[in-house]
Structures are given as structure tokens and as C-alpha cells.
Sequence to fold (248 residues):
Amino acid sequence: METFVKDAFANSIQATDEKARMERYNEVFSWLGNQNHPPDIMIRQGDAIEVKKTQSANSDLALNSSYPKSNIQSNSTLITQECRTCEEWAEKDLIYCVGHTDDERVHSLWMVYGNIYAAKHDTYQVVKQKITDGINEIPHVELAETNELGRVNRVDPLGITNLRIRGMWQIQNPRRVFNYLHTPQANKFELVAIVPTSKYNSFPSESKNRIENLGNPNLTMRDEKVKDPNNPAKLIDAKLIVFIVAEE
Fold:
């Protein structure tokens, strides 16, 4: 799934030469991450990308110890030093790319910007800190510093067992979160992108003109409003872009 997304952004899906693909990746991306540290991908002087895949169309996304993010910040303790210094940056908009796949094909791909999907960082950090503070108040245990919720060392009399206390974050699949915008169609590949209008307007005119004048009957784009993740009473202007083709 991650390779599919990288090739989509690098325009290298049709590439057959691995050396040419590597060179294209080097041009487009400043960071290609690992499974343990976000983000999965960073576009050079552009957005960051998190790739998730599910084999059930509507199942929740497992984020493990990394809470949902509205964006990526270079001062985050969750990212590596190599990611922090791969280019000059302080904050990047984040795209969640969520694919529904099986062992043979991608059935759908939803692309949603983090700032219309996840709340501000403080929302999750406050909960995490409260849990950590509660763990630290447990008497008569040897606690250690950690980026996880907590760590207890030397649990047993021999002092050979440690306990790591990790958060296991989950977030609803965007197919469910935004079901008021689009109803998935069976037996068809769907690419669904939800882009805040303010972000869409910041794209180069050449890119906007290309998609708006593509003239492909399988592609639709319309103005919508989505719930503000920080206050659902407020609405955010967004572009809903849908590309649908029948699966063979």
C-alpha cells in the first residue's frame, strides 16, 4: 500500500526500472520513514503523508502509540532526528491515505487532510498526560522515564522484569467519518480526496487548472462543508474530489 501511494505522488506507477523509480523518489520526497516513527512520507517542501491500510472496508485504523494528528511538527518527540533534519521545516500539513486492500489489489483509497480529520494536538496530549500522571502516583514501584504512557522497572524480586505501558490509539475510518459526503459504491475502485478549500486554493494554478479541466467523466469535484474536528458546531469549507472506475 505504501509503495502504491509513493508511486502515485511521484508519478511513477508505470515505472518498470527500479533505478528510475529511486531517482524519482529522491526528487519528490525528503523523507521515507519507518514503521515505528511518523510520518511515513514527506514531500520535499510539501506535505507529510501517513499511509494506513485495512482489509475490511470500514474498520477502524490502528495508530498504535501515536495519537491522531492534525499536522506534523518538527519538535515532536515521536519523530526521528533524521526526519527532523532531512530538510528545513517546522510544521507540515498531514494527509492520511487510507487504502482498502486485499492481497491482490487496492479497492479504494481515501485521502483526507489531518486538520479536518483529527483534533488539535492538545486534545490528545492532555488525556495522555493525565494517564501518565496517574501511573506516576502509584506507590512502591520503580518508574522510569519514557515516551510511552509509563514504564515500571524491576517488577519482580530478582529485578529482571520490566513493564512497558503503551497507548493503543484508534481512529474511525474516514469512510465512516465522512459518510455524509460520499456513499461508497460496490465493485468499483474509488479514490476519494477531501481537501480544505483554503488548502486547495494554495495549490499552484497549473495543478488546479489541470484537474478542473481534465474532462474525465469518472472524475467529479464539488464544494462541501465538513465538521470542524475541534468544534463540530462549526463547519469548514472543503473540496470533495472523487474518481471512480469499475473493477475488472
Summary: Residues 2-126+167-246 form one domain. The chain has one domain: 2-126+167-246. The chain is about 25% helix and 40% strand.
